[in-house]
Amino acid sequence: MPSRAETAAATRRALLDAAADLLDLGGLEAVTLRAVGAKAGVTRGAPYRHFPDKESLLIAIGTRAWDRLGDQMQALRANPGLPTAEKLRNGIIALIGIGRSQPHLYKLMFSNPPGDPTALARAAERSQTEFLAIVADLVGEQDARRYGALLISAANGIAGMEASGQLPNEKWGEVSADGLIDTLVDMIPGKGRRA
What we know:
By secondary structure, the protein is mostly helical. The protein is built from ten helices and no strands. Helix 5 runs antiparallel to helix 8 (125-139) and helix 9 runs antiparallel to helix 10.
């Protein structure tokens, strides 16, 4: 028989899964504590015992997404058989992949919740640290932050253009998101390490 703590943890996971599904299907407006509880199949009061309000639930969803991305970045970084440029490319693709498959979640991950504006930025720290370590392997520690910020900014732009239907577009020569990612990665090793 599961302990009370195990049952509570399972309920919390079910609530987060239900909330993530509702977010994917209908955006932020679809996520209410009542709808999450109904989708998770728990009592009406259960969501309120785990999350005091909708914002805390959304922060938990965003935090979980950043944790998963951090796990992916860590696995990429630790893969000895993968060239560093491929690690970088795959890291960018992992981030943009969230924007492709879960645009509402992607938007949430980069938001600043009013009650705790830095909550999701703090949640992103591990994945960003792992990503920066990959970048540092290409350009050196001194330039890693500058190039890392450039790459993340570009990835956000690519994800946004793709989500809005502006990629591919004849204006840009039918360039694809993957082609832009390749261009970004190709530019970084060419800069070399600065003395």
